[in-house]
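Moderator note: this is an archived Q&A kept for reference. The question asked for a predicted structure of one protein chain; the sequence and the answer are reproduced below.
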Amino acid sequence: MKSYKPIHISFFILAVFVILTSISYFVPIEGWNAGGMKIRFLSWDKALHPKSKKSKDITKFIQKVDTLNLEEPILDSLEKHSNDRGSIGKPSRRKLITASATQIHLAESGLSKLHLFFEKLENATNNKIRILHYGDSQIEGDRMTGYIRQRIQEQFGGNGPGLVPTVNVYDTPSFKQMYSPNFTRYTVFGGAKLKSKRYGAMGSAGRFTPEYMDSAVRASRTTIQEGWIEVEPSRSAFGRSKSYNNVNLFYTSCFTPCSIKIIQNGEVIRQDNLQQDGKYHIFPMSFDASAGKLKYIFSSTVSPTILGFSLEGDNGVQVDNIAMRGSSGTFFGNLDQQLLGKMYSDLNVELVIMQFGGNSVPFFKDSDAARNYAKQFKGQLQTLKRIRPNAMILVIGPSDMSRFYEGAYETYPFLPVLVRSMKKATQDMGAGYWDLFEAMGGLNSMPSWVERGLAGKDYIHFSPRGSSIASQLFYEAFAAEYAKWKLK
């Protein structure tokens, strides 16, 4: 075997350097076209003058953000009087101020709608209301939602994590869930699909047998199948999510007899049957104290479509995390509209938070693509308004996102265009827009969040600490609008 001396290795490295340097000197700035493909190479100028790191000093954006003492009651200067129906869910009240580091951007029509929502919020202890938080992977695992929920519930009342999907695939600290292996997850935004489009408010559902659309095929099924789902509180949850005494099961498409058995902490507490008319129904359960571990066992030849559960207190505000990994938020037209409207009504949805846009950013080729997405997103807001006309809509825009380009992390080039376009589309629809991109520090702020451990190494998603800071900034802007309205 031939051996190589150090001088041979040195000459090899030098030869490679000469070849690469020569290519770098002659390569065009725009690169080469080869068979319709763009081939780029580090240019001579960029080799000699590498791009400097782009980042911002975000100290002023985060140093005053207080994310601690979540459950310490403070006398509220805007004290509200309530006649609570039950013991679980009373507000603890905190002092609210009219100043905030960021703002919710609202046209006049949006401001009026927000004030109407605040009126409903005032009566939440007498008439439980709902806030749905839809979003992409930035909120999965109750990220952002969990913190926002805790702040809102401690101020206005409410307990429990709210809506829980039938088949939860995310690592979620707000509750624990297990399910039998034969339960299949169906979603409107990716993966297996329901032919009926009957996903409900969460855009996802579960079944322990396939969906048989033909009644004759359903009738031919004779073997009893069994599926089960278990839910319980989590010790990792924020305080308000750890207890709940009302558990609602949402289901539809039950066309064959289906029995249900409920076990609480190892003891059978109820045996019943689901309604066999194929329509949407709620199966409610109430408890004198926090429900603890519940196991639902279903038995049928053909599975109903289980739309999810809701884990709630007696009164106040429910804030639901509806995470859709990979979704652009343009899915509402693919949901059964009648079912969605009925479920929104039963849930008493009064505010919808939409947090999308980030998944589309890496694929924008030009500014027109960003503007076209904003038009599509506007169409989703129109659909929401048609389904739930009196509900307020708040949009949380995409965060800063970085790509690694020519040796440095920098903001995706068309992200600022998207932010401006989404903000305008949102305000045109009479909705509110909270600019997360601006709240983080704007252009090229993400690298600074990563350096401080506030975001992950993908330069897209927040860490738990970063999520708490972003959520607190949003809540402060929301609370400031409420305080201004209240003082008027």
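Archived answer notes: The radius of gyration is 26 Å.
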